[in-house]
């Protein structure tokens, strides 16, 4: 689709997109950074990458070894 549009049309689309984006509400990183940090610390106990997965609940654990007789 973009190949069919002239440079002028592409620039108009870009300007329209930027007009939409400038209307998005913004917050200071000093505030949102603290909120993200607090959330991550609160949820750390539920994070399987930090805590690990119990062997009995691990769906990827090998059920049995391969035996060749």
Automatic annotation (TrEMBL):
It is found in: Cell membrane. Gene3D superfamilies: Transducin (heterotrimeric G protein), gamma chain (4.10.260.10). SUPFAM superfamilies: Transducin (heterotrimeric G protein), gamma chain. Coiled coil: none annotated. Residues 47-69 are annotated as: Disordered. Keywords: Cell membrane, Lipoprotein, Membrane, Methylation, Prenylation, Transducer. GO terms for molecular function: G-protein beta-subunit binding; GTPase activity. It is a lipid-anchor. Residues 53-69 have a biased composition (Basic and acidic residues). Residues 1-69 form the G protein gamma domain. PANTHER family: GUANINE NUCLEOTIDE-BINDING PROTEIN GAMMA SUBUNIT. Belongs to the G protein gamma family. G proteins are composed of 3 units, alpha, beta and gamma. G proteins are composed of 3 units; alpha, beta and gamma. This is Guanine nucleotide-binding protein subunit gamma. It comes from Ursus maritimus (Polar bear).
């Amino acid at each position: 689709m973009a190949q069919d549009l002239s440079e002028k049309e592409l620039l108009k689309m870009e300007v329209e997109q930027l007009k939409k984006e400038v209307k998005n509400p913004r917050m200071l990183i000093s505030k949102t950074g603290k909120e993200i940090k607090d959330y991550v610390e609160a949820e750390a106990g539920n994070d399987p990458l930090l805590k690990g997965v119990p062997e009995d609940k691990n769906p990827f654990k090998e059920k049995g070894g391969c035996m060749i007789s």
